[in-house]
Structures are given as C-alpha cells and as structure tokens.
Amino acid sequence: MESSGVDSKNKPRHHPLTPPRVLRGVLCLIVLVLTAFILLVYFGFWTAVVLRFFSVRYSRTATAFFFGIWIALWPFLFEIINKTKVVFSGDSVPAKERVLLIANHRTEVDWMYLWDLALRKGREGYIKYILKSSLMKLPVFGWVFHIMEFIPVERKWEADESTMRQMLLTFNDPQDPLWLAVFPEGTDFTEQKCIRSQKYASEHGLPVLKNVLLPKTKGFYACLESLKGSLDAVYDITIGYRHRCPTFLDNAFGVDPSEVHIHVRRVPLSDMPTSEDQVASWLMDTFSLKDQMLSEFYSKGHFPHEGIEGGLFTMKCVVNIVLVMILTGTFAAIGSQPSMAKGEEPICGITPDDLMTCKPAVVGPTGQPPSAACCMALSNPKANLPCLCTFKSSPWIKFLGINPDLATKLPVNCKIDPSFHC
C-alpha cells in the first residue's frame, strides 16, 4: 500500500516525542478535561434541559455558546501551541449556511480538524457529528457529545436507522444553525480495511479505490432526505496529512502531523440528486473523485486552489481562553462553597433526590414497578407532571439512561392520573 502514496503511520514522526512535549500535552489534556467537566456541571444541565423547557432554539444557542468556547480550545492547541499548519483549499464557503458535511476518514482525529474550519466560520458550537456510540460513553468528553446532540451509531443500519431518523427530525428548524458531519466510510482507513474494500468492489462491479474505502450510502441518504427542506448545501471535504498520519496522542503531544490539508467542495442542495439510487451513485462518484485527489495530493503535497482561509486570529483565541478560564474558575470556586453543593434545586416542583427514587422504574426496556417513595414524590401537590413531559426529547434523558416511554407512564402506574399522557 505504501506505493499508493498513502501517508503511513510507520513513517518517522515530524517532531520527536520529548519529555517536554509529553508534559505539555498532558497539561493541555488536563485543562481540556477539567474545563469540560466544570462547564458540564454548571452550564450543561441548565442550557440543555431547563432552558429547553422554554425554547429549543434558545437552549441550542446557549449550549453552542458555552461548549463552542470549549471546542475552540482544540484548534488553538493544534495550530498555535503545536504549530500544525492547516491549509484550506477549494471553494470558499459562506459563514451562515445550514449544511451537511461528508469527509473521508483517514484516521481517528479527522473529525477534530473539522473544528478548525467551523471555528473560522463561527460554527464551532453548532457542528454535530454522526459517530460510533462507544465515543459517547467516554468520561467527560462523551458527556459533552450528548449535550451537543451528536448522533450515536452502532454502524449497523438495522440498529441505527430508527435512532438516526428520530434525531434528524429534531434538526429540521431552518432557524437553528447546523453543521452535520458524516463520515460515509463508517470507519477509519487502514491497509487491511482497504484490501477488504477493494475485494468487495471487484466482486460487485464497483470502483476499486486506493486511498479511501467504499462509502456506505444509507446513512447519508437518510440525512439528506430528512434535512433537505432546511439545508443550503452539502460540503464535500477531503482531508490529507503531511507527512505522517496522526493519532490522538500525536495531536495532544504535538509530534504529528506537520500539515493538515482540507479541501472543500460546496454543492448547492439544488444540485443534489433526490432518489436513493441517484444519491448512492453520486456518493460513489464523489469518493472516486476523492481517491483521485488524494493520489495527486500524495504525489504533489497539496490540493488545488489553496489559500481560501487564513490562519487563526491569535488574539481572538487568547480572549476565548481567558473567557473559559474565568467562567470555569469562577464557578469552580462558587461550587466549592458548602451552600452551593447541596443540589436541591427543584425540577418541575420535585427535588432531584425525590426524582432519583423513580429511576429504577424508568431504566432498561421494562423497568421495575415504581416504588412507594417515587409515587409519593409524583403525587406531591407541588409536582408539575406536564412540565416533566418537556424533557422527553432532552439529550440528558439518554445520557442518564432513562427510557422516556417508561417515564411518561409513571403517573398511570402510580395511579395518580389514569388518563395522563405526554
């Protein structure tokens, strides 16, 4: 496979892995984890749950602000601290479009470099990904992904279709900014996966590709079909690395890559096909074009039409970092006070402790019969049961492992209101 020009993980590192780089990388990761955790604790619940009761749009705007400033720390790490050169080429795209992005999946960190483009367009808080469900289970980072409404998939269409379509329907408001990123290959590129993909292509009369895997079309078509009434365009993104393909730790420690090249092709929605077969054919042709572009990239070292975006504005990044530090530092200090650590703020007239008595009855496919304590909490005159219904589509529900169908049946199962429904 090396002869194809594909950047190899076996090539020498751009920078040696020295103790200072390890220390700097570890410190940066600690800062990223701690700031994410504090933002989750003090802002995540209020922006993603409480504010959503009043307005989904305002909830998403507030979530995009608080977690967008955190996401902006990553391009600062990549480009300013690690001095990775990020080069954009192709079409210059407008700042305020609702778009579906597709990209090749060369390595485990491709999706993080899309933040560099989103930051330049002011969309770092509004970019969402369709990503494997295991990443949603990561401590802290996975919780952020839930708050930002990333779509988890098992990479099996039979298991994913229902969840994906249900979440896509919540993104249909044209007034809500949206960048939805999809990696149609379904997994990152390796030589072994490429050989299997080429074998499948040969057996089924499909293009034999050297630098990308055959794309899976059903998920992309579902996104396009569900959102076609509110999208402006599809962004076809092709990513190439020089001189070595990076891992997550390569990024964190600043040893690779030396350069990231991102080519953007804007396709207006009016130019996209509509039927499933036509969309599948378009996607296959697009990945054949990506394969040719990457072959040229590996031989020439660049994509055509470079220079469509400038570098990061360092002062803006510094202001962003100061804002994150002030917010997280202030609320960490406030949270250390005993009077602020009780967590007894009522939710719809019910304290969190009382709500937790109902959790065994609303987890899993069937749940347990509601306890007497749970039914007593729900029958409290201060309890606002219709208010609780507003949280049915909240990302926190899935994050806490709650089955919303079971939760909405609690008033009936507790014999509080036999006719109750959300």
From TrEMBL:
Database matches in Gene3D superfamilies: Plant lipid-transfer and hydrophobic proteins
Reaction catalyzed: a 1-acyl-sn-glycero-3-phosphate + an acyl-CoA = a 1,2-diacyl-sn-glycero-3-phosphate + CoA
EC assignment: 2.3.1.51
Superkingdom of origin organism: Eukaryota
Segments traversing the membrane: 21-46, 58-78
Phospholipid/glycerol acyltransferase domain location: 99-221
Gene Ontology terms for molecular function: 1-acylglycerol-3-phosphate O-acyltransferase activity
Entry protein name: 1-acylglycerol-3-phosphate O-acyltransferase
